Amino acid sequence: MLVLGVETTCDETAAAVVERLPDGSARILSNIVRSQTEEHAPYGGVVPEIAARAHVELLDGLIARAMTESGVGFQQLSGVAAAAGPGLIGGVIVGLTTAKAIALVHGTPLIAVNHLEAHALTPRLTSRLEFPYCLFLASGGHTQIVAVLGVGDYVRLGTTVDDAMGEAFDKVAKMLGLPYPGGPQVERAAASGDATRFNFPRPMLGRPDANFSLSGLKTAVRNEAARIDPLEPRDISDLCAGFQAAVLEATADRLGVGLRLFQERFGMPRALVAAGGVAANQAIRASLEGIAARARTTLIIPPPALCTDNGAMIAWAGAERLATGLTDSLETPPRARWLLDAKAQAPAGFANTRA
Ligand code: ATP
Ligand code: MG
Ligand code: FE
């Protein structure tokens, strides 16, 4: 099964061709990502209108390259998958409309993929992994603990009540004058910092639910930074290290609860898996090892390049849906918001059908 996937929900324009073999294993035949870092850097964050225009300009060329590199012709495709949301609506429209046009011209089934579902299923692209598993999804827009029970079958066990984890990294970077995109910058600065100099709050610690809160921590970093003048590189490193240490401790605590809730409701997970851009953070990856070991489960994290947004994850989620008989009509709408566990809450016009 050969699927073309396109990703345009935020500031990565991406296209990929992935093959799903009958035994459920995968081969990435091409995976081309063009980050719009330079376009947005002058503004210190993603500007939706600039992103949408860049997607329009870049996407056709990226799809052509992904097809050529894969050696697959449009006629050979079993499906065309696009991230139909959630995300910045201008970009989502570009990707979904392009995928619809390809589907229409070549008579290929369309698969409208939830971007979060694609993050959630990526570990099955890179590893042999059966359902159910416990997903820690930490990205620029989301921070969730999800029971992944099957393709299209997700139960959210916990979520952030305010900022997403990647958003908190980005905001901390910005307030300390580090360039956009901030997550990797904070990680780099933290590596040489003293995590004990500042004692930042560990939000939600000990709470019986599995929710996260990150905005108080972010504000605490801002308040400490405001007290230091001038802010030297040493201070920035220490602030980043203190912030990251607080994030790690909060994550360990919240995931501990999440894994316990998972076991109570669904039995032992086959693995703890992490996905989303924050899972590219080496300190977080290392701390997840300990969390998984304490819960006596294995840890699976896709390689960093597949944790951040890419086309292969969309193609793969499309292939997984196609393999279970799920395709979408050409009327399926782009969605700015789209909950992962929203089977019952799908908006009007949402036309997932079993073929
Ligand atoms: P969503 O998936 O929720 O729609 P998104 O697609 O923008 O949001 P991703 O591309 O999955 O998010 O991840 C980007 C986020 O990951 C950014 O907030 C970025 O700062 C963060 N991130 C990337 N690398 C690192 C890192 N090494 N350490 C911490 N955060 C990181
Ligand atoms: Mg991005
Ligand atoms: Fe993402």
UniProtKB/TrEMBL annotation:
For the protein in the UniProt heading, the enzyme class is transferase
Q: Provide the alphabetized UniProt keywords.
A: Acyltransferase, Transferase
Enzyme Commission designation = 2.3.1.234
Top-rank taxon: Bacteria
Can you name this protein? N6-L-threonylcarbamoyladenine synthase
Origin species? Nitrobacter winogradskyi (Nitrobacter agilis)
